[in-house]
C-alpha cells in the first residue's frame, strides 16, 4: 500500500486486514482478476476498493470517461461504498462520482463531465447516462461487481452484460458475491480471465457471532408480539414483505410509543438517507423495511434483526440477517413464524445451512423478553421530527412521517 493510504488506514484504527482483504489484496494489487465469496459484513468493500484506488492512482480521467467502475445493486450500497472509499480516494487525489436512480441525473452528468476517475453506480442509472452521451466506458481499466448475486436476482443481468461489453477488454475484473449460483457463474465464465478464487467463511450463513431464533407464534398475537419487540431498549431492524405492510406497521409502532421509521423503494432518496441517518444516531430505534434495504445498510452495534414476515428464500434470509453481527460483532436474527409457515421455514433454514433455536412464544412472556429484550410499549404516541438546517433561522424541527 502507498504510504498515503497506510496513514489513512492507521488513522482509522485499521491495522490488521480482515480475512477477505488479506486473501485478495496481493492478487488484486497485482492486476489479477478476482472472484471473492464472502458474506456481507466481511470487509469486501475495502478488499476491492483499496486495490482499485491504488491501481488507478496517478492517472487522470478525461471528461465523461472514467477509469474505474464499481457496479452495485442498490442506492444504499452505492452510498455506503462511496462513504467507505472517500478518505482513501482523497489521500490518492482521485475523484469519485456516485451514479444512482432517485437522485438528480443532471447533477450526476455534471460530475462525469467534470471528470471522475472512479464511478460507483447502479446499472440502470449508468445505462441512462451512457445513452444520454454523458458517460463512456471505453477507458475503464478496472471493473468491480459487488453483490453480484443480488444484481442477478433483481433482473440486472442484461444491463450488466451490456455495460461489461463496453469496458476495456484487457482490463481487470473483480466480482464479489455472497453466493455463486448459476447466473453469477455465467458472468464469471464470460468476463473473468483466469480468476483467483477466494472463499472466506465456510458458509454464507455460518456466522459464529450470530444467533438464529425461530419463534412460533399465533396469528392473533403477531401484532402484539411485534410491537413489544420493537419497544425494546436498543435498536432493531424489522423486515416485512411489502411497502404497504411496512407503512402500516410503522404507523402502529408510532401510535404505540415506539420511535419507528419506514424504509422502502417508495420513499425518495433524500427520505431514505435521512431515515438511515436518524437510525444510526439513535433518533429512530425501530427501522421497518422491505428487502430493498436488506443490502447496503451498515449500522455499527446493531444486535437484532427481526423477520416479521419470513423471507421467501434462503438468500434473502442471509442478506437480511447480514445487517447484524457485522465485522466480528455479535447479534441475533429472529423470525416470527405462523403455524402455516412452519414447513417452508424449516426448508429455508436447511437451504441456508442454519440450525436455529426454536421456541413457542406469546406476547408478554418472559421467554420472548429473554430472546429479544421485548417489553410493553409506553402507549404514548410519538412523532419523529427531523432536524433541518435553515440558512436564515439555524436549526428547527420539521415534522414528517
Descriptive overview:
This protein has helices spanning 3-11, 19-29, 44-56, 75-91, 105-113, 123-131, 148-153, 157-164, 182-191, 222-230, 243-256, 269-281, 314-321, 342-352, 366-372; strands spanning 34-37, 68-71, 96-99, 118-121, 142-146, 172-177, 196-199, 210-216, 236-239, 260-263, 286-289, 304-307, 331-337, 357-360, 385-390, 394-399. It is an alpha/beta fold. The chain folds into 2 domains: 3-199, P-loop containing nucleotide triphosphate hydrolases (Rossmann fold); 210-372, P-loop containing nucleotide triphosphate hydrolases (Rossmann fold). The strands form 3 sheets. A 7-stranded parallel beta sheet has the order 3-4-2-5-6-1-7, with helices on both faces. The protein has a 7-stranded parallel beta sheet with strand order 10-11-9-12-13-8-14, sandwiched between helices. The protein has a two-stranded antiparallel ribbon with strand order 15-16. Helix 5 links the parallel strand 3 and strand 4. Helix 2 runs parallel beside helix 3 and helix 3 (44-56) packs across helix 4 (75-91).
Amino acid at each position: 500500500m502507498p504510504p498515503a493510504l497506510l496513514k489513512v488506514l492507521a488513522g482509522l484504527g485499521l491495522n490488521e486486514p480482515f480475512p477477505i482483504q488479506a486473501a485478495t489484496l496481493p492478487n488484486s494489487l497485482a492486476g489479477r482478476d478476482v472472484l471473492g465469496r464472502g458474506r456481507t459484513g466481511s470487509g469486501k468493500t475495502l478488499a476491492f476498493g483499496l486495490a482499485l484506488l491504488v491501481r488507478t492512482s496517478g492517472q487522470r480521467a478525461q471528461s465523461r470517461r472514467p477509469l474505474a467502475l464499481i457496479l452495485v445493486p442498490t442506492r444504499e450500497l452505492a452510498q455506503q461504498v462511496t462513504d467507505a472509499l472517500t478518505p482513501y480516494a482523497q489521500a490518492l487525489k482521485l475523484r469519485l462520482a456516485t451514479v444512482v436512480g432517485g437522485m438528480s441525473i443532471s447533477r450526476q452528468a455534471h460530475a462525469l463531465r467534470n471528470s471522475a476517475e472512479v464511478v460507483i453506480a447502479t446499472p440502470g442509472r449508468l445505462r441512462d447516462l451512457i445513452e444520454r452521451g454523458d458517460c463512456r466506458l471505453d477507458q475503464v481499466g478496472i471493473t468491480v461487481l459487488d453483490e453480484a448475486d443480488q444484481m442477478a436476482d433483481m433482473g440486472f443481468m442484461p444491463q450488466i452484460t451490456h455495460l461489461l461489453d463496453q469496458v476495456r477488454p484487457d482490463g481487470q475484473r473483480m466480482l464479489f458475491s455472497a453466493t455463486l449460483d448459476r447466473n453469477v457463474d455465467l458472468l464469471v465464465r464470460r468476463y473473468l480471465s483466469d480468476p483467483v478464487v477466494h472463499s472466506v467463511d465456510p458458509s454464507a450463513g455460518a456466522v459464529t457471532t450470530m444467533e438464529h431464533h425461530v419463534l412460533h407464534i399465533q396469528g392473533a398475537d403477531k401484532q402484539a408480539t411485534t410491537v413489544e419487540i420493537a419497544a425494546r431498549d436498543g435498536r432493531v431492524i424489522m423486515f416485512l414483505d411489502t411497502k404497504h405492510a411496512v407503512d402500516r406497521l410503522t404507523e402502529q409502532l408510532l401510535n404505540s410509543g415506539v420511535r419507528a421509521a419506514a424504509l422502502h423503494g417508495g420513499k425518495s432518496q433524500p427520505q431514505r438517507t435521512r431515515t438511515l441517518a436518524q437510525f444510526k444516531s439513535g433518533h429512530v430505534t425501530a427501522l421497518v423495511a422491505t428487502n430493498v434495504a436488506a443490502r447496503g445498510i451498515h449500522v455499527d452495534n446493531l444486535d437484532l434483526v427481526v423477520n416479521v414476515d419470513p423471507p421467501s428464500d434462503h438468500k434473502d434470509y442471509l442478506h437480511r440477517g447480514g445487517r447484524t453481527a457485522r465485522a466480528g460483532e455479535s447479534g441475533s436474527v429472529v423470525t416470527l413464524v405462523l403455524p402455516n409457515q412452519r414447513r417452508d421455514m424449516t426448508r429455508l433454514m436447511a437451504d441456508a445451512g442454519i440450525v436455529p433455536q426454536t421456541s413457542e412464544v406469546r406476547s408478554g412472556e418472559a421467554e420472548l423478553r429473554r430472546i429479544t429484550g421485548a417489553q410493553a410499549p409506553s402507549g404514548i404516541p410519538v412523532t419523529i421530527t427531523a432536524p433541518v438546517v435553515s440558512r436564515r433561522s439555524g436549526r428547527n424541527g420539521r415534522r414528517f412521517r
